[in-house]
Amino acid sequence: MKPSFFPKIVVFLSIIAFLTPATAAVSESCRSALLELPSKKNFTMKDLLTSVIKVKGLCKMKFTCPLDNSVTDVGLTAGCVKELPEDLGGLQQLAQDIGLDMAMQQVQSQLYAEPPPAAMGSSNYYADDDQAPPPPRRRTYDEEPADPSEKGKFSIGVLAGVNFSTIIMGQEESDFTEGRGSKFGVQTGVVFDIPLSKIFYLSPGLKIAQMGAKSEENDEEQYYNGMYYTTVKETYTETITAYYVKIPLLFTVKNYVSEKVALRINAGPYLAYALGEGLYEREGKYYIDGQLQESGSYSRKLFEEECIVDYDGYETYYDCEQMADPFDFGLSIGGGVQFYGFYIGVFYDYGLANIYSTTNSDTGGNKRVISNRSMGFDFGYFF
Fold it and tell me: pTM (2 decimals)?
């Protein structure tokens, strides 16, 4: 009879081995870190499982997988978390195998309304309620686990980037506008993310930006003198250069699409004031049949008043004007991606102020209107 029972015993043990979850092998450093987890406040196996699922989910895409030495929300390194099983049963089995008894008792006390009977018979049970430590906080299944991301936190961003700026020209009581060519510039600054909720932020900042415009004009004509044609060409280059300190007051929506990756949308007003005197330059060249005959240049300060002195034999007259107003304001909109603190984004600034401060006699006395425009890219890091 004994040989007939032997195959049945083998089959029974094989079924038991198949149904019993395999214990994941962990390194000695990871085992030591796991044994320290019960000393952390409000630690639960559910928190550990949430961290494992998040880390392994990020590692499905190589560029989002956290570094092994980075620390997760439960206090373990990402390398240790990658060694753990991705199911609650496997984690509980692992906890029993490495002697994590206290953690198992905390899991039982938090997942059930009453503590398990084994807890009352253990050496940690206090007969006197005054001597007993406060019970751990219980958390229900519908309560959200601790969020390890940067949601709802104050942060400071350091930004630098490039821009392409220009000016739009028009005149009062007219819909006609004319743009100038764009000019390359750089900007740098800081921004402060002040949380209003988990996704809404007030984001004031301070920037220093190089702005301006650049345009070229060519005028070419041919003349016939009775024997041959003569080509006359005139070229003009205008360059405007100014440095502004900008104070944007933006409202930001920051939406986390994963643990450390967020999409940002920024919009709001800005104030700006020119630093220094600014510079307007105009250069002209005169050609006949491709040969340079004459060239000249003119420059003046943008934000400083200049006067022309005239004397009629009796009195001295001063005709003073300031070419541009240093004060500017407008609207700004932009967006970008924040990835593990690093940020890359785009912006567009629409100037509403008329920075031209004189009246143009060529337009019948109507005041000329000139406004700033700029768009660019920001790169930076949020602390």
Answer: 0.57
CA distance 247 to 205: 6
What is the 8-class DSSP label of residue 267?
E
Which is nearest to 283 in space by CA: 262, 305, 298?
A: 298
371: its two tokens: 């406004």
- Tokens, residue 217: 């004009």
Element (H, E) at 356: none
Contact (Cβ atoms closer than 8 angstroms) between residue 146 and residue 117: no
Q: Are 158 and 190 in contact (CB under 8 A)?
A: yes
Pairing mode, strands 306-311 and 316-321? antiparallel
CA distances from 375 to 252, 325, 346, 354 (A): 18, 21, 7, 19
In eight-state DSSP terms, residue 19 is H
Look up residue 165 and give its two tokens. Answer: 């700026």
Which tens digit of pLDDT belongs to each residue from 175-231?
A: 666 777 889 999 999 999 999 998 999 999 999 999 999 988 888 888 887 788 888
Amino acid identity of residue 334, one-letter, is G
